[in-house]
Amino acid sequence: MALGCLGYQEFHQRTLSATSSATAKINCFAAAAILLIFAIPPVLIGAVAASTDWNLTSYGSPSPFERGEDTLVMPIVLHYLTPTYVSIVGIGCIAAAVMSSTDSGLLAAASIFTSNIYKSLLRTQASEREIRWVIRICVVVAGLISTSLTSFEIKIHVLWFLSTVISYIVIFPQLFCVLFFKISNGYGAVMGMLVGLLLRLLFGEPLIGLPTILHLPGCTLEDGVYVQRSPVNTISMLAVVAGNLLFSYLFSLLIQKNLLPEKWDVLNMKVKQLPKQRTPTDSVKDPNDKICDTDVSEPMMSTGC
C-alpha cells in the first residue's frame, strides 16, 4: 500500500509545488511521521467501540461489529458515546473531509483525462472553451460512476484497498520506469499496463467476487472460493515493469528503423526520439549563457539516491 500511494496525484502535487527539492524531501518525511500520528485516533476509537457495553447506551445490542456496521463505527461512537456538541462537530468534520476528498478526486480525474488523453491524443487543436466543457462533462461522468459504486454491497475500506492495489499495479510501475529507465515510452507503458491488468484479473479477487482463472502455487479452496497465497499483486506489478521495458524497446527499434508508419504513431514517439538538428548558430556560445545557467533553480525531481 505504501508503494501504491506513491502514484497518487495528490502526493506529486505537494512535492512539485515545493520551492526546492530539499523542501519537498522535508515535507515527505514530515508527512510520513504525521500520518503515523493521525493513525492513533482511529485505533483508539475502534478499541472503545469494541470494549463498550452497548446495552448501556440507546444504541442497544448487538454491537456494531455484530450488525455488520463496522465501517460506521466512528459516527456511531460520536453519536452515542459523546456529548451532542462533540458529535455535531465531529460528524461535521468527517463530512467536510469526505467532500474535500471527493472534490479533489473528481477534479483530478477530469483534469488528467482532459490533459493527457483528450488534449494530447484525441483533439490536439481543441480550444479553451472546448476544454472547459470536456472537464465539466468528465466531472459529471466521474461523479455518476462514483455514485453507482454505492449500489454494490462493498465496504468502503475494501474499495480503498482495491484503489491502492490498482495504483500499485498500474501507476507505480510507470513511475518507476520513467524515473530510472530512459528507454521507457508511451507504447511500452500502455502495453505493460494491459499485461499487468490482464494477469491481475486472471488471478481473481474474492473481495469483489472475481473468480480465479489462473491458479498459482499455494492456491487453496476455502468455503467454495479459491484464495491465492502467492503475492499476486507484486507479480502483476513486476509484469507491468517487464512489459513496459520490453515493448518500449521493441517500439524504439521500430521507430529507429522506420518500420512504424507515421500514421500509426498516435503518440508521436517518432518525433520525440528524433535527434535535434543542430544549426550553425548552435556552435556559437552566448556569453550570457553562463550567467543564465547559474540562475536556474535546483530541479524538483531527482533520480539520485
TrEMBL record:
InterPro entries in UniProt: Choline_transporter (IPR052244), Na/Glc_symporter_sf (IPR038377), Na/solute_symporter (IPR001734)
Cell compartment(s), UniProt: Membrane
One Pfam match: SSF
Chief location category: membrane
Residue stretches spanning the membrane: 29-51, 72-98, 133-152, 158-181, 193-214, 234-255
GO CC, one annotated term: plasma membrane
A GO term, aspect molecular function: choline:sodium symporter activity
Protein name per the record: Uncharacterized protein
